[in-house]
Amino acid sequence: MNKPILKSDQVALGAADFFARSKAKLGFDVPAGLYDPNIIPTSGDPGTDKMLEIIAREQPVRPAAVLIAVVDHPEPTILLTQRAAHLNDHAGQVAFPGGKIDATDASPLDAALREAEEEVGLSRDFVEPLGYLDLYGTAFGFRILPTVAKVRPGFSLTINHSEVDDAFEVPLSFLMNPVNHQVHSKEFRGMERSYYAMPFAERYIWGATAGMLRVLYERIYSS
């Protein structure tokens, strides 16, 4: 693992500013690449983009949805989960509430809300969807469409321990500060590809979760 590369540029981190920017910049158009194997998501990293091209040829598309739940505290937070240690895939990793899109889901948004209810008991009555983030591809063939949402405080959670071990909140100001965005690299079939990590206290946020948080930062604050 390489040493982290730290970015020093700062952004405005106020809650009102974040939610206003999100509403202005996001929408609910579903990208065709969520289901079309011929439309390959891009990451901006040449090694990762090449990996996604290879994966698209070798594996079927696996459409998925996650909820980026931004809790509207005076100092807002993002709700994350720790996946159950007994799972076959990504055991123990930090993730957003979410999962594969079922045929019975009316939309990716509906899938994200359903999964949040199933995994941690977050009632959709507390959730105000703001729009979809960019489509995110993974090495396992998942095409993930994140829904960014404003969550009203006062909800209670019920952890489904068959899927997650814990749910916790991380300050939005920490996750949207590029100083905390470490860049590492790993090898994929002889090619070097980059990935993000955002360690917070005892939680190691990395991989697809950190990658989507970085996309959120770039979409809301850099574009």
TrEMBL record:
Residues 61-196 form the Nudix hydrolase domain. GO terms for molecular function: coenzyme A diphosphatase activity; metal ion binding. The keyword Hydrolase applies. SUPFAM superfamilies: Nudix (SSF55811). Keywords: Hydrolase, Magnesium, Manganese, Metal-binding. Its cofactor is Mg(2+); Mn(2+). It comes from the Bacteria. The keyword Transmembrane helix does not apply. This is CoA pyrophosphatase. It comes from Bradyrhizobium frederickii.
